[in-house]
Amino acid sequence: xxxxxxxxxxxxxxxxxxxxxxxxxxxxxxxxxxxxxxxxxxxxxxxxxxxxxxxxxxxxxxxxxxxxxxxxxxxxxxxxxxx
Length: 83
Known about the structure:
- This protein has helices at residues 6-10, 20-42, 44-47, 50-76.
- By secondary structure, the protein is mainly alpha-helical.
- It has a domain at 31-74.
- α2 (20-42) packs across α4 (50-76).
- It is elongated, with a radius of gyration of 16 Å.
């Protein structure tokens, strides 16, 4: 597919005029909800492993942030370049 590949992944320019905090609030909310649900389902709080608890929150945050940035980047591109 044109427009996809290594350059799409390594283009780390921040969209939306550099509003870092404003763009990270929605992924933080998603990570808080999903991470808490994962911890409750997996019983991570009982085992008290800091690494497992951190991963339960970190993975949803990374996925939500990547998805949001990809969406913003695709919306910022001209319609002719969209897949």
